[in-house]
Amino acid sequence: MSFSIQYKQLFKVDVLHLFFLNNGLKNLFLMNEAEAAKQLDGYDLNSFFSLAPTNETLEKLKGYNLVFRNLNTGFAVWTKVSNDDNAFPFIPLPNDLSFTFLVKVKDPAFYNYTDLNLNNLGKTNYFSNRRLSTEAPAFPLINKSGDHFNINGTFTLTPESAAAEQKNLSPAEKINLFGLIKLYMKADIPALNIIAPDGKIVDPAKAFELVFNNRKTIWRYIFRKDPIVKVTDDVKIENADPKVLISKSEQPLTQKGFISIELGGTELPNPSSQLVKPDTLNAKYYSEIYM
Predict the structure, then answer these.
(1) Which of 182, 212, 242 is the C-terminal boundary of a domain?
(2) Domain identity same for 55 and 177
C-alpha cells in the first residue's frame, strides 16, 4: 500500500498597494474583473517590501511540516495533510501556535507614495489576529481578504510593545523593519481563525489582507517663464510667484494611468513618486515638477 504526500493551503496574506494597482483616478476595488486582473498582472510587492518568516518561525514551520511560499501579492503557508483525512494537518496545530513574519521596506521612496504619517517612520507596525495585552483594546486586528481597509497609524505599536515583540529577533532581522505579521491558529474572533474548533483546516483556507493607500499630494509646477493662468485652469499661482503653480486640489500618486491637470487647454505632466516634499507644519505634501 502506498501513500502520496499531499499539501493544502493553510492560510494566505495578500499585501496590496494602490500606488501600483490603481489606474490614475480609478480605484482597483471599483474596477470590473477584467480591469482588476490587468492591474494585478505584473504587480510584484517584492519591488517595495520583503516578507519572510522570522528565524524562530522557520523552525516552527519545519517542525509542523509546513511550507512558506512567497507570492507576487504576498505569501502563503501550506501544510502537509493527514493520510487518513486531508481536512486535517498531518501534525495537529495547537490553538496557541503562532507564526511571525517580517515586513521590511526595500524601496527608499516607499513613504513618498504611501499614505502614512512620516511621524511614525521607524516605528513598528503590528498585524495579527490576536490583540496584545500591552495595547489598548481598540488596537485593530488584521483584516480578512476583501475588507479593503487601508493600513494607517492605528497599527503602530508603542515602544514598549515593539521592544517586547522584537526581543527574539536577531540584529539582522530588525534592519529596515516596517512591521510584524503574527498569526495564531485560533484568533480573538472566529472570523479570523485558521484552524476550526475540531482541528480541521478552515475551508476555504483563511486569507488575510493588508491594503496600503497611495499618497495624495499637491502638484507644484515650477516654470522658467511666467505662464498665463486663468480661473478655469486646474492650477493656480502659489504665494504670488507667477513662475510657480500648484494644483487646486490634492491628487493621488499612481504608477499607472494619467490624471488630467490642465493649463490653458494643455495637459500638464503627472509627477513621479521620487520628489515629494512634506510640509509638516501644515500637514501637506507637495510633488514638484520642473517645466
Answers:
(1) 212
(2) yes
Domain residues for 168? 7-212
pTM for the model stands at 0.93
Say if residue 34 is exposed, middle or buried (CB neighbours under 10 Å; 0-12, 13-18, 19+): exposed
C-alpha–C-alpha distance, residues 267 and 259, integer Å: 9
Of 279, 278, 251, 285, nearest to 267 by C-alpha is 251
Q: How confident is the model at residue 165 (pLDDT cuts 50, 70, 90)?
A: very high
My answer on whether 75 and 135 are in the same domain is yes
What percentage of the chain's residues is helix, strand, coil (to nearest 5)? Answer: 20, 35, 45
- Give tens-digit pLDDT for 84-134: 888 889 999 999 999 999 999 999 999 999 999 988 989 999 999 999 999
Question: Band of the pLDDT at 1, cuts 50, 70, 90?
Answer: very low
The rounded distance, in Å, linking the Cα atoms of 289 and 273 is 11
Residue 261 lies in a domain: yes
Is residue 2 assigned to a domain? Answer: no
Whether residues 95 and 208 share a domain: the answer is yes
* Spatial CA neighbour of 264 closest among 291, 240, 286: 291
